[in-house]
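Reviewer 2 asked us to include a model.

Predict the structure of this chain.
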Amino acid sequence: MILLFLALLLTGAAPLLHSQEGLAELERAWQEDRFDDLEKLLPAAEKAYPRNPTVAFFRALVLADADEAFASYKRVFESEEMSRYADTALFKMAQYQYARERFTAARRYFQMMQKRFPQTRWLDDSLYLTGQCYLAEGKSDSARLVWNSLIKRFPRSPYCDMAVADLESSVWDQPASAPRQSAAPVSGGKPFYSIQVGAFSKQENAHTILAGLEKVGYEGMIVEKKVGTRLFYAVWIGSFPDRESAEDYARRFIVKVTKEYSIVKSE
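Predicted model (structure tokens):
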């Protein structure tokens, strides 16, 4: 009877152990930016853990549709079983709103994360972006307070350097509607491919996003695009000779900043 019990126990434990190893492999793939492997591993994990919020989090990472990804992150955050990635899911929700110029909603998500997860690794990121939201809302005094707090609490963070640069910028002395010069593509007149990370109805919002990206090492430009009768300011990163080069760069680097990008061709 003892041997039979052990045999049954081991037989039942093997699939569980295999599933746990699968979850660990999912995490390794994400940490190593192997998103193709992550997508291949997901079906087995979803079959083994159909209601697991951590599995849902990894699924959201590879969803191409931003609205679907937001809904998935929201389910992770609101799940009764608190996932270890709940703070990251909430951060992604805030980024989603920020990318769509819904700055008040984004700020509230960032502030919720700071309150609910005071030890999160996204704390300095969220403080910096909270200041950007305040600035976009026209609340410059609040932006200053948040950035000064960031500088005091995280003096070694790269976002501290960005906050210092923003506080020293002449943007504080300009009206919010002041026009700025759009960067022109440098391509020798030949068509090229680029990575579009956002398109904004307000030119100053596009400049804010581009300035933040340039401070952490990306090179970009702002391109005017007309859709019907509306004018948008698109933020483009890089200039590549073909689509494959642009896609490879995006997979290796841009995905670390945002999954909401598209490959575009100059006219």
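The chain has two domains: 17-170, 193-265. Residues 1-18, 172-187 have pLDDT under 50 and may be disordered. We have added this to the supplementary material.
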